[in-house]
Design a protein that fits this description.
Structural class: mainly alpha
Low-confidence stretches: none
Radius of gyration: 20 Å
Distance between the termini: 22 Å
Number of domains: 1
Order of helices and strands: HHHHHHHHHHHHHHH
Number of strands: 0
Strand content: under 5%
Helix content: over 70%
Mean pLDDT: 91
């Protein structure tokens, strides 16, 4: 495999920042941004790419992959902030809500902590909507359980990059096909949208980009780089339109549209790590977006809980309806990151064999 090294890329943090902005603004009722749910898919593509890149680099450096170290790193990155948010939600519910509502909140927190929340949401049995956004964490964690183990088996078995790419393409197309079939047969958008099996194509697409760049299959001519850049820039332009007009249960999305969007997002990631043109690079390296990207995990975790807490406790200030929720969210997320998450992240170094943009 070619010696591609990811390292730290500001532009990927900036893309994370864009993703979390899409999600958060779509959850403020007073703002007309219904298509922001695709920010979750951007996170999926990024996660698939970053995790797979780290695994390939570890294999190249050590001739093996330590699954124990991998899962220790994931736990240190994901669990502290998640436990913090779930604890606050349980405390607020216990203080300001009825005993029955507080019990449902604790039940929801347990489902989230077990990383199976998406299946309860898919079958309309998740008790509390204030934590339902954690469905995406469950999908990612289930991917983290399966994919590193499968990749390690393929690498130890001496599979060629072409055969591994075929596995990823099959997973991506299989997920999209199952989504379409279930949509046509059940019309249950919750089952189709929140199921791990029907929402994994973005993760596979990101992993495929990592495989391509680590195998040296990057755009090698100016013509191919130009095509890739046009696709990436058009995708970012379309996101602006989609942001105000999209709807998660649109039939065209269920019947292939999500796959197209995920492939477009994968093209953006590939462009950013190979040969980005100035407009895309400057956008994704803008300091505010890079900063948001660094704290994006906390922003995503906290946003629904902060918005709900402001409502249930009756806190109000003057000004636009969105001013207090967004201001409080940024303050809480930044405090959590700098005061709690980042100090604990230093422990990850004990389990790191390679370093890259933190997934």
């Amino acid at each position: 495999m070619a010696d591609f090294t990811l390292g730290y890329r500001k532009s990927l943090d900036g893309l994370r920042g864009i993703a979390v902005v899409l999600v958060v603004l779509s959850h403020i009722p007073s703002l007309p941004f219904g298509g922001g749910f695709f920010g979750v898919d951007l996170f999926f593509v990024l996660s698939g790419f970053l995790i797979t890149s780290l695994l390939f680099e570890e294999w190249r450096a050590n001739g093996d992959i330590s699954l124990k170290a991998f899962y220790a790193r994931r736990a240190l990155r994901l669990l502290p902030a998640l436990v913090e948010v779930l604890g606050v939600a349980a405390i607020v519910s216990g203080r300001w809500e009825s005993a029955e509502a507080a019990a449902r909140m604790r039940e929801s927190a347990l489902m989230t902590l077990c990383y199976c929340a998406n299946w309860f949401v898919a079958y309309r049995s998740y008790p509390r909507g204030e934590l339902s956004h954690t469905w995406s964490l469950s999908v990612e964690e289930q991917f983290y359980v399966v994919w590193p183990l499968l990749l390690l088996v393929l690498l130890r078995s001496g599979w060629s990059r072409r055969r591994m790419a075929a596995v990823l393409v099959a997973g991506m197309l299989g997920s999209a096909l199952l989504r379409a079939v279930l949509w046509l047969t059940t019309k249950s958008w919750e089952r189709v949208y929140f199921g791990s099996d029907t929402h994994a194509d973005g993760l596979f697409a990101g992993a495929l980009v990592a495989l391509l760049v680590h195998a040296g299959a990057q755009p090698s001519t100016e013509a191919w780089r130009r095509i890739l850049n046009w696709v990436a820039h058009l995708m970012m332009g379309y996101l602006g339109f989609f942001f105000v007009s999209g709807w998660a249960a649109d039939p065209y999305l269920m019947l292939g549209g999500y796959l197209g969007l995920n492939l477009g997002a994968a093209a953006v990631v590939l462009c950013l790590v190979t040969s980005p043109w100035a407009p895309l690079r400057l956008l994704c390296e803008a300091p505010p977006l890079v900063w948001l990207g660094k704290i994006s995990y906390g922003v995503y975790l906290w946003h629904s809980v902060v918005f709900w807490t402001l409502g249930v406790t009756g806190l109000r200030i003057g000004g636009p309806a969105w001013a207090l929720p967004l201001g409080a969210l940024l303050a809480v997320s930044a405090a959590s990151y700098y005061g709690f998450e980042r100090p604990l992240l230093k422990l990850k170094q004990r389990f790191e064999r390679v370093r890259a943009s933190a997934p």
